[in-house]
Amino acid sequence: MRTDIFHLVYFDYDRSCYFHFYNCNFRCLGCLRKISLWDCHLKEDEIKKCKFKGFLNLKELENVVQKLKIEFNLRKAVLGGGEPTTDKNLLKVISLLKNFDLEITLLTNGFSFPQGFEKFEDVKVTISIKSIDPQKHIFYTGYPVFPILENIKNLAKNGFEVLVETIYIPGFNEVEGILRIEDFIFSIDEKIPLIVDSFLPVPGTLWPKPSLEELEKLESELVRRNIKNVYLRGKTIRSGVKGEVRLIFPQ
Ligand code: SF4
Question: How far apart are CA 27 and CA 45, in angstroms?
């Protein structure tokens, strides 16, 4: 049975493997895949060598995970891409990974979840909101934001560990927009973390990367409002990933 997984990368700093799914239902203007389909944490010469070799089926996936478990004592599985929820075999992939006793994180745009996902409440779900403004969200992704907000509410209500991400996009999703996302989170559960990434310019967009001053302005506003659940990843992560990053598939 075929999955949509076409690329695997192992990170030794936290013994995790990132499973890249190919398809996505959204058409985000700032999608990093416009720069490259391959994991941006790999070294440039390795990225150059990557050639698409098709999709893993469930048996092949099981063999790779077993190998990672034996060789590296794999601890975590991160499902992203692309959009894992567009894979009609996502639940089978999750069940397979659970059999290896892995901690599973699903990175998703949160637009729709397959029926039956609710029984996997030990899966951590990270949902990205590109803008909470309905018009802006459609403009940026091609899809409405409302179903995403409803899904976040339902997942939190059903006991899932949820984390929300957004992107600081100068001139599009700035302090006011990010504080509105924060208000939405507060209306559900103030303990849900909000991670703010920095926009990275991709071909076809005019927005720049946020400056340090812009991020500091957001930070002071959070301090002024005594908001403690927001993490400015775009400000703190300025250097690369710790430890070794290995290309697992395709090779
Ligand atoms: S949801 Fe993610 S993968 Fe899909 S288009 Fe948007 S940024 Fe790209």
Answer: 28
Distance CA 161, CA 192 (A): 8
Q: What is the DSSP letter of 143?
A: S
Counts for the chain of helices (H) and strands (E), in that order: 8, 9
pLDDT tens digits, 214-227 = 999 999 999 999 99
Closest to 225 in 3D by CA, of 169, 179, 164: 179
Query: Rounded CA gap, 75 and 102, in Å?
Result: 5
Residue 35 structure tokens: 């720069």
Given a contact cutoff of 8 angstroms between Cβ atoms, the answer to whether 8 and 248 are in contact is yes
Evaluate if pTM is beyond 0.85: yes
Do 43 and 9 touch, CB atoms closer than 8 A?
Answer: no
Strands 5-11 and 245-249, how do they pair?
A: antiparallel
Tokens 């990053």 sit on residue: 245
- Ligand 1 closest atom vs CA 30: 7
Return the residue whose CA atom lies nearest to atom 7 of ligand 1: 31
Query: pLDDT digit string (tens) for 171-188?
Result: 999 999 999 999 999 999
Distance from C-alpha of 85 to C-alpha of 110, rounded to nearest angstrom: 8
Contact 54, 3 (CB under 8 A): no
- All structural domains of the chain, each given as residue ranges with its CATH number in brackets, are 5-163+238-249 (3.20.20.70)
Residue with the nearest Cα to atom 6 of ligand 1? 28
Residue 9 and residue 39 in contact, taking contact as beta carbons nearer than 8 Å: yes
Cα 130 to ligand 1 centre (Å): 10
